Amino acid sequence: QLQASGGGLVQAGGSLRLSCAASGIAFSGTDMGWYRQAPGDLREFVARITTDEHTMYSNSVNGRFTISRDNARKTVFLQMNTLKPEDTAVYYCNVWPALPSGYWGQGTLVTVSS
Questions:
Q1: Residue 85, φ and ψ in degrees, nearest 5
Q2: Is 7:18 a contact under the CB 8 Å cutoff?
Q3: What number of other Cβ atoms are within 10 A of residue 7's Cβ?
Q4: How far apart are CA 81 and CA 86, in angstroms?
Q5: Neighbours of 113 (CB within 10 A)
Q6: Which residues contact 92 (CB under 8 A, 6 or more apart)?
Q7: pLDDT digits (tens, 9 = 90+) for 25-63
Q8: Phi, psi of 39 (to 5 degrees)
Q9: Strand locations in the chain, DSSP E?
Q10: Cis omega before residue 97 (within 30°)?
Q11: Short-list 111, 93, 113, 114, CA closest to 102
Q12: Using CB atoms within 10 A of its CB, is residue 20 exposed (0-12), middle (13-18) or buried (19+)?
């Protein structure tokens, strides 16, 4: 199970920190990712972190977002700074890489106002 939280309404330029609690997977041995889906768009990759904490970001968020993980808490985080209206989406965490047709837990809505 993957439960994302921490979303909300924020003004452009603001920050949010998302969390995702995982259960039922061998978390410490699994690469994890954040994904998002804006209204009317396909779900897209945002960031991923490997088991040895190597990170990678999409071009659209690189330099503004930071992914991290806490294996003891089986939780992955996404610190989002300098938010833009185009970051508005439902954010999901999942294993990386994730199958579009696979399991997707509950996402968390991020709305950035201009």
A1: -55, -35
A2: yes
A3: 17
A4: 13
A5: 11
A6: 2, 4, 34, 35, 36, 37, 43, 104, 105, 107
A7: 999 999 999 999 999 999 999 999 999 999 999 999 999
A8: -55, 125
A9: 2-5, 8-11, 16-22, 32-37, 44-49, 55-57, 65-70, 75-80, 89-95, 108-113
A10: yes
A11: 93
A12: buried
Residue 102 has pLDDT above 90, yes or no: no
Q: Which residues are CB-contacts of 22 (< 8 A; sequence separation ≥ 6)? A: 1, 2, 3, 32, 74, 75, 76, 93
CA angle 60, 114, 34 (to 5 degrees): 35
Q: What burial letters (b/e) apply to 45-79, b meaning 16+ CB within 10 Å?
A: bbbbbeeeeeeebeeebeeebbbebeeeebbbbbe
Each residue of 60-93: pLDDT tens digit?
999 999 999 999 999 999 999 999 999 999 999 9
Task: Give the bridge partners for 43, in sequence order.
Answer: none
Amino acid at 6: G
